[in-house]
Amino acid sequence: MTRDALFIRGRQLALLLILLAGWHFATAWQWLPGFFFGSPLAVGRQLLAWFGDGSIYPHLATTLAETALAFLLGTSAALLAGLWLGIDRLAAAIADPYIKAANVMPRVILAPIFSLWFGLGIWSKVALGASLVFFVVFFNVYQGVRETPPEWIANLRMLGASRRQLVWRLHVPAAAGWLFSSLHSAVGMAFVGAVVGEYLGSARGIGYLILQAEGVFDINAVLAGIVLLTVCALLLDGALSRLEGYCRRWRA
């Protein structure tokens, strides 16, 4: 890590410590009611208790599995649909009003329908998460393919490139930057789908734990669940950033 990167990391850590200290003293000195705002020490103790007795692992594994499946399925479907409609303008024109209608619809309301179709297991959460991820990725891939310079397409066709070669040699690399920019948002959407699905009906998962804590007004357990979800999302986002750096060499 370079000196400048260490400097930035140090300032970031200092800001986090300042925020935590402000939160702690604001509740300890009763500037903020601890019943509603909790305290960082109590949140930390809750996390240690969960990991200490191992009770968190089944819930964490369930939520991460739902998130990963929703992310992979939603991204794969969006990539295929974005490439297809980005290349085939007639199909895009026909599908345009239906895509717009599906996009503007608040897809969270589909959660009860998915529960009826797929039951209260993980697949209803996966379906909800995938529906949220799909449109985040789809429009970026679609736009990336549409913005491929037409002279590049004409040049490759003059060189005898087949349709498949055009897709893999031109359209996919052209959409790669758009794709990775959308994946960072898609990670959050996948977690939203998993947690909202667990809220509406589940017996396991971080969303289930948060719902149980809300039922007994345990704000520290609620915040501990939120912190845990945030850390997992940041780790996945960091892995995507590393993958993006690797794929940019391939794109060049």
Throw out a few tags for this protein:
252 residues; mainly alpha; MetI-like fold; 2 domains; 0% strand; globular
Describe the protein.
The longest helix has about 40 residues, at about 165-200. Helices cover about 85% and strands about 0% of the residues. It has 2 domains: about 1-35; about 55-250, Orthogonal Bundle (MetI-like fold), CATH 1.10.3720.10. The chain is globular. The protein is an all-alpha fold and about 250 residues long.
CATH level-1 class of the largest domain: Mainly Alpha
Q: How is the main sheet built?
A: none
Mind telling me the C-alpha Rg? Answer: 22 Å
Structural class from helices and strands?
A: mainly alpha
Taking the alpha carbons of the first and last residues, their distance comes to 25 Å
What is the mean predicted local confidence, pLDDT?
A: 83
CATH architecture of the largest domain: Orthogonal Bundle
Query: What would CATH call the homologous superfamily of the largest domain?
Result: MetI-like
If you consult CATH, what is the topology of the largest domain? MetI-like fold
Instruction: Provide a count of the helices.
Output: 11
N-to-C series of helices and strands? HHHHHHHHHHH
Report the principal-axis shape. globular
Q: How many beta-strand runs?
A: 0
Beta-strand content estimate: under 5%
Number of domains: 2
Uncertain spans: none
In which range does the helix fraction lie? over 70%
